[in-house]
Design goal:
The protein is mostly helical. Helix content is 65%, strand content 0%. It has a single domain (3-170), classed as Hypothetical protein af1432. The protein is built from 10 helices and no strands.
Length: 188
């Protein structure tokens, strides 16, 4: 599959499912564009911006156990694996696959974090195993990407603004960035 075919396949998922709401008052596409814009605003490199954009791509995949209107139970892991299958980096896959673990970590570690979650995030936390246990939290803290995992989670939490519509230029920006990134990976 060519880089263009991979990008077309990937973005066809957004065309097909991006309009769906998942209990947050925003569409999937609105949520993921907002997360990417937050990463960009903070000055992160394209790999991290793309991970922020793709972090919920697993909700669009056909396999996986449903959490009612809240999407797929294992969407984080499935999304990471899907991105690797298209040629994206392991780092990006880990960032995508970490945002649920980061929520579990933060609800364990930070008093009051749970109360800050949206109603939908509170509901999905139950499906996702609830707060981490101490041993898992310690191991999570030792991961070299730990700080970025937490960033991904915070962007996920913040990317639920109902008044930020997606414009075609937002999607084109992500497509171009994804294409450029995959081309760079293929050249290395």
């Amino acid at each position: 599959m060519t880089t263009q075919q991979k990008i077309d396949t990937l973005f066809e998922l957004y065309t097909t499912y991006g309009h769906l709401d998942y209990g947050e008052g925003v569409t999937q596409l609105m949520h993921m564009v907002q997360a990417a814009k937050l990463a960009h605003k903070e000055g992160y490199e394209e790999e991290v911006i793309l991970a922020a954009f793709f972090h919920d791509i697993g909700h669009f995949l056909e396999e996986g156990e449903e959490m009612g209107i809240y999407g797929k139970h294992d969407h984080d892991r499935m999304g990471g694996e899907y991105l690797v299958s298209l040629g994206f980096t392991e780092k990006m896959a880990k960032l995508v696959a970490s945002h649920v673990a980061a929520k579990r970590y933060l609800t364990y570690k930070i008093p009051g974090y749970y109360e800050q979650l949206s109603d939908a995030s509170k509901k999905t936390l139950g499906f996702q195993g609830g707060p981490m246990e101490a041993a898992a939290a310690k191991a999570f803290e030792e991961d070299p990407l730990f700080e970025l995992y937490l960033k991904m989670r915070y962007w996920d939490d913040l990317a639920k603004e109902t008044d930020q519509a997606v414009v075609p230029e937002d999607v084109q920006w992500m497509k171009e960035m994804g294409t450029r990134f995959l081309q760079q990976q293929a050249a290395e």
